[in-house]
Structures are given as structure tokens and as C-alpha cells.
Hints:
The protein has helices at 21-34, 47-53, 58-70, 113-121, 146-158, 162-166, 174-188, 203-214, 229-237, 254-261, 283-296, 351-364, 370-381, 384-410, 436-444, 475-494, 497-500, and strands at residues 74-77, 81-84, 197-200, 220-225, 241-248, 251-252, 266-269, 299-303, 328-333, 345-348, 415-417, 425-430, 451-452, 465-469. It is an alpha/beta fold and 501 residues long.
Amino acid sequence: xxxxxxxxxxxxxxxxxxxxxxxxxxxxxxxxxxxxxxxxxxxxxxxxxxxxxxxxxxxxxxxxxxxxxxxxxxxxxxxxxxxxxxxxxxxxxxxxxxxxxxxxxxxxxxxxxxxxxxxxxxxxxxxxxxxxxxxxxxxxxxxxxxxxxxxxxxxxxxxxxxxxxxxxxxxxxxxxxxxxxxxxxxxxxxxxxxxxxxxxxxxxxxxxxxxxxxxxxxxxxxxxxxxxxxxxxxxxxxxxxxxxxxxxxxxxxxxxxxxxxxxxxxxxxxxxxxxxxxxxxxxxxxxxxxxxxxxxxxxxxxxxxxxxxxxxxxxxxxxxxxxxxxxxxxxxxxxxxxxxxxxxxxxxxxxxxxxxxxxxxxxxxxxxxxxxxxxxxxxxxxxxxxxxxxxxxxxxxxxxxxxxxxxxxxxxxxxxxxxxxxxxxxxxxxxxxxxxxxxxxxxxxxxxxxxxxxxxxxxxxxxxxxxxxxxxxxxxxxxxxxxxxxxxxxxxxxxxxxxxx
Length: 501
């Protein structure tokens, strides 16, 4: 192991005003690790020596070390101090980049104005999934039939014809588009033929493709608030103006949208299961949204990100099924139905967009990967896809029931879960004396993943709540997570506000 260096060789930044000593010291040590100023395997100074050198309480230094250890940056060793981990978690590989730290100057001459907007709009990449309680936005990856998928992939590759290896079609692999058209017509009530289906690498790719074709600099886009931050960031990076509209029990407030930007070019909505609040857009709001789009020659992007996971009834009919004028673009992906690294999604587009999309793809990415599409096609046509979804609905429904049952007992007076019967995560409202951001930090130190709803605010503040995922963890882990979260929230509720920081 490398010999411990004297700590004065590491310069810590000046503590900003109104920043707690804990936050300052944590940020500086974390940045030093990510920048490799503290190298892998290097021994850190003792908590006593660090506290003395920087004139801070030793308890604060101990708390910082515990937080860094919980997040996988350092490894404490009894009797010999703490060292920087030799292998950092994969999710931190890009965080240490200057672009991700926001150190690129706005006047950087090597980027175009659009390039600078993309840099400023960058969001952290999704963290590597950890099988712990409340991990959000992740399916139960351990239950996916990987052996079956592997056999189908091997069979497709062994029997691949030359045409399957040589090239592809701009709109996607034709047999997969035909299989999806049959599935969407029968299960989701979507009016489409295979000609209207476009295979993409996911919803974010679909959004980018559509935005390039229909949005110009300065165009307004309606967005749900709170809503999906990556969509808002993409629109802003492309030069569009995001118009954040409130969401109530019926979904997006269309009247507010007409008042703020009647002639918006696009509306991005999640009507089946609003992200993140989970409400379903009412039929009256759906019709109102369609009338607005029809009257103003505008577009609606319907993101059906988890519409297949509805536990109390069959999946709801899509907004697209009500569209008579060809203004709705329906999009979904296989990330949550299958696994995220598959990177396959699809759109159902109006007739007038088919040729423009094919032309755009001829300049951007030509065609999506064909072999993965062929395997997905076989998975659907042989019935495995439908069986997998039915199985996962049953498992997720049980896990949601376990979460709700445990929370009603253990979290009473601390966190009130909303009623939900769909999706992969639940929303809970915190007791008024507990800040969601404090709960996230304290829970993270105990290995629990909770996400404050403020993370999804577009313009206006959100209610004080947390998002809890229930799909990835089994029932035992969920129960343990609820008990641990109860201890965290009870501790925060009983602490005076000044000590929570």
C-alpha cells in the first residue's frame, strides 16, 4: 500500500457561505477522490488529525468518513484508518469529468451555442443498479429469463441470413414492427399498422429524433411539472422553451397551458401513469389536450414508459387511440419491461411523419442494430414476452402490497404512501417537520435509496415527498428497508432543525 502522504499536499477549497462544515468537507474529499488527487489505495489521514488541522469537530469528520464509506468511496479498516477504494463504483467514472462537474466555461470557443446548451443541460448518468430497498426506475433484473434470451439469440445468430448481417431498414426490422403492431392493437388499443412503427434505441432517442424534425429555436413545449427531467433538459438543449404546467388529480392542466403558451409546438405527457406523481389523465383532459393540438396544428408526445404494469386492471388504452387527426406520437421502450441495456424502444407515428423520420435517420444513425431486433421479435412471436409481462405484474403487485402494508404500520406519522396500483415506484408524503433532502442523505448513509420529489421539479417547488421503488427488491428486503427508513425518519423528526444539516 502506498505510504500515506501529508495532508497539507491536498488543497481543500474555501467553504462557501451558508454551506455546512459537513457538506463542505464531504464535497472536497469526494472531489479529491474523483479527480485522483487522492489515489486508489491511498491511506487517508486520521479523523483526529484532520479535525485538528482544519479546526472542525471530530464528530463531523467521522460522519463525513461514514458517508463516504457508505457510498463506496473509501474503505475503513479497524486499527489502520481508512483508504481510498481501489475500484470505484462504475457510476462514478463519468462524474470526475470536467464536463460533468460543470467547469466548462460558457464562452468555450470550441463548442457551438447548441453544444454549450447540451453541456449545461447534462444530467448524471443512471447509477449502477444495487439490489437494495427502494431502488427507483429499475425492474427486477434477477428475474429476467436470461438463459431463454441467450438461447434465442444464439439461434438467431446461427441461422442468420446474409441480409440480416448486411444492412437494415431506417424504420427498423420489419418482422419486429409487424409483431409490435399486432401486440399494440390487441393489448393497448392503438390504431396502427407496421408502416407507422419506428424502432429506436429508447424513449430518449425517440424524443431527440422527433424534436429535430418538429422543433425550431424558441418553440414552446408543454411539460408536466413535476415531470421527467431528461425530457426537459433535451428540449432546452435543442433551443426550445419549456413551459412547465401544473399537474393535478386529472393530469396536465391544459387550461394553464393555453393561458401561458397557446401556440406551443409540442406537448410532452405521460397520461397512463404520470411521472413522477402516478396520476392517470382523465378522459376529459385527454380530449381537451387533443382538441388543443388539433386546433393549433401542434403535436403530442405520449410517453408510455411503464403502462404495461397496471395491477388492478388491464393496461389502459393509450391516448393515441383517441386521436383522429394524426397529432399524437406514441412512444415506449423495453427498458422496464425487459432490461435497460437492451436499448430498444419504438414509436407509433402519424402517416405524415414516416418519410421525414426515414430521411432523418439516413443522416443520423442509418438504422438500429438488427440482431437485437431479431431476437426481440422471436421473443414476442413465440409468446415469451406476454408470459414475462404477466409474471412480472403478479410479482410487482405482491411487492407493492408488501411495501404498503409495512409502511402503514412502521411509517405511520412519518411518511404517508399515496394509493397506487401501477408502475415500479410509489410516492410518499413526509411529515411536515422532515425535509426530503435530509431524508435522502440520512437514508443513503444506511444504504437505502430514496429520491426527493424536488428532483423532478421543472419550475415550481413540489410537495415534500419521496419516491420509493418497489420492483427491484424482494419482499424481505422491502420489509427491512421500511424498518430502516422508519428509524431514519423518526430520528429526523425528533431532531431540532439545526442539527439535521
